[in-house]
Fold this protein.
Amino acid sequence: MEALQALEELQVQYSGTRLLHRGLLERSVAVLSTGFPALDAILRGGLPRGRVTELAARGTAGQETLAASILKQAQLRRGAVAWVDSAGDIPLDLLAAQGVAIDRLLVLRPEGPEQTLSLLHDVMTERSITATIYPLASLAEHERLDRPLASWLPSLEQSQGVLVMLLDLAESRGPGFSFYASLRLQLAHQAWRCESGRITGYRTRVTVLKNKQGPAGLAVDLDLALPEGIR
Amino acid sequence: MKRTACLKSPGTIDEDAWEKLLDRLEECTPQLELESPGTAYLEAAGMDGLYGDWAAWSAAVLAAADACGFPEAQLGIATGYLAARLAAQYCPNETRWHRVIETDRAYLSRFSLDVLPLNDEPRRRMTLLGITTLGQLARLSARAVAEQFGPDVLSQYRLACGAEGAPRAIRQMRQVETSCMFDPGASSQDELFLALLGRTQPLWDALRHEGRSIRHITLRVAGWHWRDERSSEVLANLAGEPDLPGTLRALLSGLKMVRAVEEADITLQGVLPFAVRQPMLWTTREAQNELDALAGRLRRRCPAGVLRGEPLKTWAPLAGERYGLAPWSGL
């Protein structure tokens, strides 16, 4: 009874945050579907809203396809979506082929690190942006962002947006993971799928390396199809 | 994923009321396809996301039907045309709509062969062989169907297997028109261009302010020494950014040799409602305004760095390069 009373007091103190009592204190977090039911199932519904998610991959493992699917899901829910394109290599054709309405995708191309930081701050604060994809161009950029991003997490939580950072494991020469990510998924290419001698897609394994909202260590295999026109 | 919805109203159809309903339905879907009075197919992909869920979208469609005098209209949502039509026809009376959750093939398997337009002879042979439902027909191989009942039955066999069927007639968007006739008093192309721009800009702004997408612009000019009037017309690109001066230059270049113009008549045609008419790219004007406002806020930080994707304008885009980036500006 004392524990329940303490919980109620905490609830009053941190109004707006719902506290559950299931062994451990656990926050109830809204989610955004990834568009892959099998992946949603191991993530308890999808990516946590108001949090940072990292997608780490090496080579062709479906990182951009998964990012496209997340943007599409956000657009289907009438949310605004953004892609921070500091490297200048946004895969527009892939996004369009995956069903993202690219004429309604905000492509943000900052000039220099300072503008990147200020734009990221705006994106994390904006309530109308449901999902933002940010491919990290280099390890140095990753390290430069660590401190400011961590301090803006409360703004992201208020805006309920999803910030997805794409990490290229080959590029960053090491994990280089940040401590503030709520969810970290690693994608690994498994096998190509061929039909009539043509590659039509591939299988990729998504492993949950870190999950503050649920169990980590789970993995699921996804069959991704290469869209027509890209095959 | 493709989704088709069928709105079906039983009984005799008042064609004027049906046309009014189709106008109303244009607000609920990016594309309408027509079969016969009383049956319309609506593009439904992504509508659950736009409206919150399927129940909300169905309620909006059925409310339009009620308001236009079709209180018995029913809605079916499926992947293909046949499953959507049957879902509309056999949906529960109390809800007046049904969404096919299983695959079209699984849903269709329970229906009798009566729903297919089969000739008497193949139908008789199927009855003799004990084939009475679409599911039983779909279990056969295409080769066996062609051998047993003739190749003409293959199209019905594909329908039974849940294949899509031929698309219906797409309803043309309703046109709105505004025009202006004036004496430009111009003796050169540049003077004529400036006069046209001055007279056309208010029409252009008025149409766009009312939420219409400008589709088609026609210019007719006449001079005292010409025997016939000359005309030029352009189709505006819905996907690209509308540009009135560029469009007028294109119109004038279509006229060639214009001097001593005495009379100019320019007509602008738009479509209702405001929408980029492609499934998945469809949006409401309100949503677009919100997005433009958001882009404006972000542009304060990064004036040149807020962009959007758009189809490349080249006639033969390189494979894999169909889209490019352009500065964000309101539709």
Summary: Chain A has eight helices and twelve strands. The helical segments of chain A are 2-13, 37-42, 63-76, 92-97, 112-125, 139-151, 153-159, 169-172. The radius of gyration of chain A is 18 Å.
